[in-house]
User: Fold this.
Amino acid sequence: MTRVRVKGFKIFEDRHGKPRCYHRTTGHKIDLEKTPLGSVRFFAECARIEAIAQARKVQEPKPGTLGSLINVYFETEHFQNRAAATKRDYRKCADFLYPIRDTPVSAINTPLVAGIHDKAAQKIGWRRANMGRTFLGQVFRFAIPKGLIDQDYSSGVIPKPRPKDRPYASRPWTVAERAVVLERAADHVRVTIALIMNTGLDPSDALKLMRNQIEGNTIWGVRGETGEETAIPIGPTLQRALDAAPGHDAVTILANSKGKPWTYDGFSTVWHRLKKQLEAEGVVQPGLTLKGLRHTVATTLREAGMEERQIADLLGQKTPAMARHYSRSANLAERNRLTLEVFEKENERRSETVKPLKKSVKP
Assistant:
């Protein structure tokens, strides 16, 4: 791909090797088939999108309108502390609502929000429509205490169901797939996958873990997506993987082949190459994702009979108080240790009964 950089735009290759480009602030995508990368039309389209973004930035919404409520929410600490991906998604929701930003607050009610939700599902799909509903819920939630609106009109809107014919993203990995990936991965990649595989951490959170977040045999972390604290015990399997990892001087627990902290894009690229190679050999099935390892932990524990609350505690799905102390988390860590022991035993039991996938032979 031609090396082109434009300030404010993300230019990259997707997992199929196809070039992609979008505006970082608004999320607006550029069709690189109609406007080839590096062409005059491409730079003209970038300039047009940036001009629109700047115009929207300086235009203040009218008081007492939906746009003013959204603006109030964007200035809250709650929004500022959200993960970068979440903030980007919420900005996209606001862009979708931009044409009706001047709707008076007095006209906002549940039927209106339901209509917006239905229209969004038709134009941008069920998932993003539901995200828009969630976004409006956050806007209304923080506007109520300020006396800007009287209730959350999104709460009565029923989320759009997932289409039955749509395959689930981030499916759990089979035992055989886990075994072959760990066997074939390079050392610095193996320990990274092993950490995600044996903790249920989100991949982006795992890559950011610092050395000082390990105390004894516990990893103390915070989920980047929600800001929730986690206390993840280091089980025997993970400890062996950490002990066998290549040495490095990075401040993070995990590092790339040069001994530097991983970037999410960097690891994703390495993982994508490995996955495609294993798929071509027929030793893993299509659909493996790094986030699927988080689903693997939850699924394995559920099938082993663990309660949902125990699984949620291990995965950091409980909402703790901001001033939560290590003493309270210590109790959670001990419960999580027992939960993780079940995961370890169940993995061992399954590994003894499942054989690795064999390479497919073409007739």
Q: What stands out?
A: Confidence is low (pLDDT under 50) at residues 319-330. The longest strand covers residues 9-13.
